[in-house]
């Protein structure tokens, strides 16, 4: 795709990666992604903000064909999907200075060959002038690495946010015009990348709320020409508020756990609690992550394999643990052949989370009447705990 103008002096460059299906070799990204770079032409100087995944360097270089000189290359974030093409860009523009945060400099030097004397660190709040345009650098640590910063173009009220507010969405749209689709992609992205850093995100949201924005220009997905959509979504996702939702990932080897899951889901539904259940042998872990953004309770369903939870449960629980959702409660339901002690405590799976453990329901072999009654009690406990939080 060619460079596209956002305003007379600001263009979107970069590449749309229609075919990428995993990020960080971890979670599916069903709608691809993009690596956005931005060019700002001031009356005296030109700045390039971020680069692209190295596999797409030719696309970026072709978009820069008619740009003979760049004064500043700004690196908001050292992860290679934005920084990986810096060496080629710095080689193409031998007079350019590379501007980054103090922590960013060390990380970039660790990750790629760059000339140290061409890197200039910028402080939080520092500005540079491009003539008639002013760039202000704002440190936004932990969105989602420690060195991350954003840039505010004062005269045009554009916030260049890099990963902050991004979405893994390959689209030919310049702007987030299909808001419901972008919202879903941005939520999935938030769940995968930002959710573990909810505290820093809350602080960074307060910090950037001091700036009026006409556009938010992230480094993944389309540009927000109505920034309030994504700002309000982030305020909600990063808030302490949970919803009347149970997430139920499970593995059932011989059908007993599935019977328990079906019963519990029915009992919860009768009490007005929304449940998202995931069969972990086929589940999309991205969707699981996305539903965790505002759920109040996790119930893990597992068969016992050689006196331990099923390995799929370990994998999913580890993912939940590292994503640090704002869950309040957790329980285990499961079926065992000769011993179930090893699976009854959900906090063993989730040491990072401050959860209240609810009574687990474990049965020997197939579930019987008293097991279904115990599941009814668990459903009543969950509904009551949710009601105490004011959830409807
Ligand atoms: Fe899009 Fe953290 O890289």
Tell me the number of helical segments per DSSP (H or I, 4 or more residues long): 11
CATH classification, class level of the largest domain? Alpha Beta
What name does the CATH topology of the largest domain carry? Metallo-beta-lactamase, Chain A
Output the strand order for the largest sheet. 1-2-5-6-7-8-9
Q: Identify the bound ligands.
A: MU-OXO-diiron
CATH architecture of the largest domain, by name, is 4-Layer Sandwich
State which percent range the strand residues make up: 25-35%
Task: Explain the overall architecture.
By secondary structure, this protein is an alpha/beta fold. It has 2 domains: 4-238, Ribonuclease Z/Hydroxyacylglutathione hydrolase-like (Metallo-beta-lactamase, Chain A, 4-Layer Sandwich); 246-383, Rossmann fold (3-Layer(aba) Sandwich). It is built from 11 helices and 21 strands. It has helices at 57-63, 80-83, 86-92, 102-111, 179-194, 198-208, 228-238, 256-270, 285-291, 311-323, 369-388, and strands spanning 4-5, 10-17, 22-23, 27-28, 33-41, 46-49, 72-75, 97-100, 119-121, 127-129, 134-139, 149-153, 158-162, 215-218, 243-250, 274-279, 295-305, 308-309, 329-336, 356-357, 361-364. The model has no long low-confidence stretch (mean pLDDT 95). It binds MU-OXO-diiron.
Entry keywords:
392 residues, alpha/beta, Metallo-beta-lactamase, Chain A, Rossmann fold, 2 domains, seven-stranded mixed sheet, 26% strand, elongated, binds MU-OXO-diiron
Short description:
The chain is of the alpha/beta class and 392 residues long. Helices cover 31% and strands 26% of the residues.
């Amino acid at each position: 795709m060619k460079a596209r103008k956002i305003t007379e002096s600001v263009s979107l460059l970069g590449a749309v990666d229609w075919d990428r299906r995993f990020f960080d070799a971890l979670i599916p990204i069903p709608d691809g992604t993009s690596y956005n770079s931005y060019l700002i032409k001031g009356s005296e100087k030109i700045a390039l903000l971020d680069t692209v995944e190295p596999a797409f360097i030719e696309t970026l270089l072709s978009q820069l064909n008619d740009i003979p000189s760049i004064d500043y290359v700004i690196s908001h974030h050292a992860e290679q999907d934005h920084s990986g093409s810096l060496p080629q860009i710095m080689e193409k523009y031998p007079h350019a200075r590379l501007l980054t945060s103090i922590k960013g400099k060390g990380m970039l030097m660790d990750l790629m060959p760059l000339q140290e004397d061409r890197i200039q660190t910028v402080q939080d709040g520092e500005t540079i002038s491009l003539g008639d345009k002013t760039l202000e650098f704002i440190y936004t640590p932990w969105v989602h690495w420690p060195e991350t910063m954003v840039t505010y173009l004062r005269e045009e009220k554009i916030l260049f946010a890099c990963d902050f507010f991004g979405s893994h969405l390959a689209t030919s749209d310049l702007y987030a015009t299909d808001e419901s689709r972008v919202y879903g992609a941005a939520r999935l992205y938030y769940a995968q990348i930002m959710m573990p850093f909810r505290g820093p995100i809350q602080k960074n949201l307060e910090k950037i709320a001091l700036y009026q924005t006409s556009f938010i220009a992230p480094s993944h997905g389309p540009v927000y020409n109505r920034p309030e959509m994504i700002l309000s979504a982030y305020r909600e996702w990063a808030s302490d508020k949970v919803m009347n939702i149970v997430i139920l990932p499970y593995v059932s080897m011989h059908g007993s756990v599935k019977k328990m899951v079906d019963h519990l889901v029915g009992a919860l539904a009768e009490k007005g609690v929304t449940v998202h259940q995931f069969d972990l042998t086929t589940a999309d872990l991205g969707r699981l992550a996305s539903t965790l953004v505002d759920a109040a309770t996790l119930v893990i369903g597992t068969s016992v394999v050689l006196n331990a939870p099923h390995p799929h449960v370990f994998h999913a629980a580890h993912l939940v643990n590292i994503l640090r959702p704002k869950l309040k409660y957790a329980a285990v339901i499961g079926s065992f052949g000769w011993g179930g002690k090893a699976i009854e405590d959900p906090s063993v799976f989730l040491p990072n989370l401050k959860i209240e453990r609810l009574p687990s329901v474990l049965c020997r072999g197939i579930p019987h009447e008293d097991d279904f009654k115990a599941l009814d009690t668990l459903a009543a406990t969950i509904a009551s705990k949710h009601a105490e939080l004011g959830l409807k």
